[in-house]
Amino acid sequence: MPPTEGTAPSRRDARALLALACQAAEAAAEVIRAAEPRRANLDWREKSPVDFVTEVDVLAEARAIEVLSAAEPNAMFLAEESASAAPSPLPSALRFVIDPLDGTTNFLHGLPEYAVSIGVEVDGVLTAGVVLHVPRNECFTAALGAGAWLGDTRLRVSNAASPQRALMGTGFPFKRPEDIPQYIGQISRVMAGTSGVRRAGSASVDLTSVASGRLDGFWETYLSPWDVAAGILMIREAGGVCTDAEGRDSQVTFGSVVAGNAVMHRWLLDQLQDG
Ligand code: 2AM
Ligand code: CA
């Protein structure tokens, strides 16, 4: 969590909202941790081919929403497992964008790369975000104007200036086989120009890796708002750039994401242009 200097009211609001989001993320993480020993017996349901959901995703989401709505009864929610449910009856300036378990496929395989991700918007402006990496128990936070943090350590994107030494992250277009040929072109160019490419299987985790300088850049073509809400703010607050594949500032919506420091981001964008 960021330290408490700075007194502007908006800053205080951002910090209070971040504290609440962290509390909700921890409540969801408790559900996930409790289920880890019995993951082999969990029932996998397919939302669409190769996109799985379990009772753990659903329960973790319900716990997060319970914590948030107890404190903010008029808030709106955009949450992965209830995204098609009826919207809040009251229009609200406050919206929580929730992925209760980002990396469900990893979780189901016991591969320790999954997280709870919660982004907070005030009047449509990303104001706070938390990504709680459950297996590593790392809590990444960001508040508008107050930086991105891992515990007490302030995060900065890497200062890589040349792609040759860069390590990039990506996600495959696993839901869109028709896009694989175009993606193969992209990954071929990035592989040829950098020191390596990694694929964690959890977009929110990838974005925290860029915000903390562990990765120099990241791109993926089809993401959902709950995958990226917290991570976009984290990249910005860590001094990085986060856009779609056309270079437009990232929004909390469906679509592509390209992230990195300014130089690596520009280089990645160029690799994505020719198909
Ligand atoms: P999820 O686990 O919350 O569904 C981007 O790759 C995102 O796609 C991931 O963050 C992950 O979020 C989702 N996803 C769903 N099914 C996937 C799969 N089979 N492989 C990789 N990512 C998957
Ligand atoms: Ca999820």
Please explain how this structure is put together.
By secondary structure, the chain is α+β, with helices and mostly antiparallel strands. Helix content is 36%, strand content 26%. It contains seven helices and 14 strands. It has helices spanning 9-35, 55-71, 104-109, 180-193, 203-211, 225-237, 262-273; strands at 45-48, 51-53, 76-79, 94-102, 115-122, 125-133, 138-143, 147-150, 153-154, 167-170, 196-198, 217-223, 241-243, 255-260. Strands 3-4-5-6-7-8-9 form a seven-stranded mixed sheet, with helices on both faces. Strands 11-10-12-14-13 form a five-stranded mixed sheet, sandwiched between helices. Strands 1-2 form a two-stranded antiparallel ribbon. A hairpin with a 3-residue loop joins β7 (138-143) and β8. α1 (9-35) runs antiparallel to α2 (55-71), α4 crosses α7 (262-273) and α5 packs parallel to α6 (225-237). The chain is globular and about 50 Å long. The model is unreliable at 1-9 (pLDDT under 50).
Average of the residue pLDDT scores: 91
Q: Report how far the terminal alpha carbons are from each other.
A: 41 Å
By DSSP, the count of extended strands is 14
The proportion of strand residues reads: 25-35%
**What fraction, in percent, of the residue positions are helical?**
25-40%
Radius of gyration: 18 Å
Q: Label the structural class.
A: alpha+beta
Overall body shape: globular
Bound molecules: adenosine-2'-monophosphate, calcium ion
Biggest sheet record: 7 strands, mixed
Query: Which runs of at least 5 residues are low in confidence (pLDDT < 50)?
Result: 1-9
| Secondary-structure element series | HEEHEEHEEEEEEHEHEHEEH
How many helices? The count is: 7
Could you give the order of strands across the largest sheet? 3-4-5-6-7-8-9
